[in-house]
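help with this:

***
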Amino acid sequence: MQRYSVSVIIPTFNRPKLLAQSVKSVLKQTYPSSEIIIIDNGSDSEHLNELSKIENSSGLINLVRLQANKGPGYARNIGIEKSNGDWILFLDDDDILAPDFIKACFESIQFEKNAEMIIARAVCFREGLPVFYPQDAIGAINLRPYKKDPITTMLINGITIGSCLVCRESIGSLRFREDIWHGEDMLFWFSLMQNINKLTTTDTAFSGVRQHSDKITLRNNPFHPDGSPARSKETYIRLMLDSMENKNRWNEFTLKIIFQRIADNSWYSPSIIELLMSNPLYGVRILILLIRKRLYRYGITLTDKFLKRKPLDFTWLQS
């Protein structure tokens, strides 16, 4: 298998204990990364000693300290500028990689020459609890449609930041928006997917998205700390629409529903319910899809218990 250099970029803010596990998961990869770039987004002084310990734990780590928190987009852009790898992996400071994540990703492109992006699995996990696939999977159960129609599939299912490996050349001059603090990754993926020629997927690589009370996407935060109207959900939805190069491929109402769901991080928000009630026929279709998805996952859970399937290997976190 051809050897590639990989840069892992991790922005962090005031979560050194979670960051340490995230970094540990990268250092334990069976296919080693070339560098780990940690962008400290102005963490409080009480965390600096712990950050220094993480920095000194491996010669692969490059810790960049910012004086103030300028958001995840700014931090990731700094990481891109300082990275040297052929491929780039973005990881949140509270998420982890299964030990074979990078190896499995690169094994997948042996069968997909000239692939510029690799989309892997992402699963939810909580500390100390077993993780099963597919009932703990995030987004699409079937990744294959990403290869045929990545934009549509992503519109419906979304994508997690730590489940993708991207060719550096394909990123080019593209950067994350720095004026939005939530959902900036989705805007980045939309723009990237509209400009790459080929991507591939793998069912054997897993990243873990940690579920905990301090998770930023679970908070009721505005899209920017100042909460100004210029940085509201409405502005975010407009930016998403503006980022679509071929809007005519989709029904405008469909796009509004999808982007509102992304903005609210839920199918059950008041805004979504209001939109669906304004178009009952579409609302019934969405409801049926959600019920089918729930029933499918429930059926998978029962099947796993009956077959006594083994959980994924995230036990190394305890060692």
Notes: The first strand starts at residue 6 and ends at 12.
